[in-house]
Amino acid sequence: MSASIRRQISDSVSAALASAQSSGKLPAVEVSDLSIERPQKSENGDFSCSLAMKLARPMKMNPRAIGQAIVDALPDSDIVGNVWVAGPGFVNFSFDDEWLQSQVDQVIEQGEEFGNSDLGGGRSIQVEFVSVNPTGPVHVGHARGAVLGSALANALEAAGFDVQREYYVNDAGTQMELFYQTAYARYLQQRGKQVDIPDDGYRGEYMNDLALSIVARHGDEYLHMDAQEATAAIGEVALETMVDSIRQSLDRLGVGYDVWFRERSLYDEGGFDGVMKLIEERGYRAERDGAVWFAATELGEENDAVLIRSNGAPTYFASDVAYHHNKFIERGFDRVVNIWGADHQGHVNRMKAAVSAMGVDPDRLTLMIYQMVTFKQGDELVRLSKRSGDIITVDDLVDQVGADACRYFFLSRAAETQMEFDLELAARQSSDNPVYYVQYAHARIASIIAGATERDIRFDAADLSLLNHEAELTLIRKIVQLPELVEVMASNLEVHHLPHYAQELATAFHWFYQQCRVISTVEGEEGLTRARLRLCLASKTALARCLSLMGMSTPDRM
């Protein structure tokens, strides 16, 4: 793993600035942002630095003169072929062609590790996502968060962080008691008893299915038990069955976890009592109206929050406080990322306040809020069907469009924006479906390589200096952006860039394929054929890595 090209150029600019300042060519001024960007127009190079314009006022110099001083002090680099000052003071960089060509072999050599970075330095980060109450199947309202969380974890891991993916199983509290009581009532109904489910119980058809599965496994075992004892026993079976169901549904979506953390363990192992005592010791506990409150107003919040209700029952927020104490203090994660639905927006500030009350820097906690998804079929808004008619499950969606389409479409918009999911487009097998378009590029390359193998064309080595066509160099330029993209996604926690990059990479390959005959039949062009086959293999490596980071399959045939 290494630094991305952007970071290497940034380091060069930083070194040049320090050198120019130490030699007296530029005055000493503190710099916080070197402003290295990719220009929109190719004639402005591969990278551009606007630092000189930002330093013009504090340095009291012409920005072009500042830019030239930076250029003159730049250390030698194999990466950069040309560097110049343009416009009002931009410092532009373009890649050296020889270096660019050499990257084809570098990408192939790195293989499945291509795109990896040392940015994270092994620091620990926990990503907690979905964490829906295990009182029913996971529905499409949670699918977006599931995909965002798993892809973000992949990106962070590629960027050199030590990542733990976690599902928080809310197996304590009032809702679970209602779930247990409903499961017991449905069980009795399946055994011919005339009983009603609780008024606030769970009425979905899935509860009947759950009761049937309990009957199939346990028969009349619970029928003659004391009601309270039977409810507890059936509740445990129902809970584990539902957790297994959630796990299987998420697995179909390509979402997996390292840890399934049980809320009840916070109470059973004393963690909850310990953090409540800590809150009191640090002066953030208040009692009024018979309840125990977290004094969030002491930390600048508008309102305090109830920790323990007047009936003695802890609130969900209280459990979350204990859970985050477990994350930061007991397990010692350097950073924590929670991915929550839009209905949790109001909990963000008080959760950060609670972390602060524990003595933890609240900036170590990031709360990503994702917005709702609207489904449509062509131009019409639709409601996905389920035989029970009461909820739309992840399984329903995967059955209709497939896991790959689910993941690509959910990743294609920033988490904080609302999105429309076009079911018709997602299922379409044509180039206007971006999922098909990207995967087809991978399959096309696999076919080209297979064809070369059948014709016994060896390309384990090649003269890459023959790759001089504009389409070839454009494709290589796009390939080598991936490590930089991984660092951007990990730094900003924004994975929506990935599907867009994958589509751009596929477009660059398709253009190369149209412009350059890969396997030439012209005598004397055997070397060019080998070089282009190497470029195809590098493209396949980059596309496969992209698809892997998105949690999608890499088909060799379509």
Strand content is 5-15%
Across the major sheet, the strand order is 7-6-5-11-12
Q: What would the principal axes of the Cα set say about the shape?
A: flat
Tell me the distance between the termini.
Answer: 33 Å
Number of helices: 20
Average pLDDT over all residues = 94
Structural notes for this entry:
- The model has no long low-confidence stretch (mean pLDDT 94).
- It is flat, with a radius of gyration of 29 Å.
- A 5-stranded parallel sheet has the order 7-6-5-11-12, sandwiched between helices. The chain has a 4-stranded antiparallel sheet with strand order 1-2-4-3.
- α17 (470-479) runs antiparallel to α19 (497-515).
- A hairpin with a 2-residue loop joins β13 (373-377) and β14 (380-381).
- It has 558 residues and is of the alpha/beta class.
- It has helices at 5-22, 51-59, 63-73, 97-110, 140-158, 174-190, 205-218, 227-252, 264-268, 271-281, 316-330, 348-357, 394-401, 403-411, 423-427, 434-454, 470-479, 482-492, 497-515, 526-549, and strands at residues 36-37, 47-49, 80-86, 90-95, 124-129, 162-169, 259-262, 285-288, 291-294, 305-308, 335-341, 365-370, 373-377, 380-381, 419-422.
- Among the domains are: 5-95, Arginyl tRNA synthetase N-terminal domain (Gyrase A, domain 2), CATH 3.30.1360.70; 174-252, no CATH class; 431-549, Isoleucyl-tRNA Synthetase, Domain 1, CATH 1.10.730.
- The two termini are 33 Å apart.
- Helix content is 49%, strand content 13%.
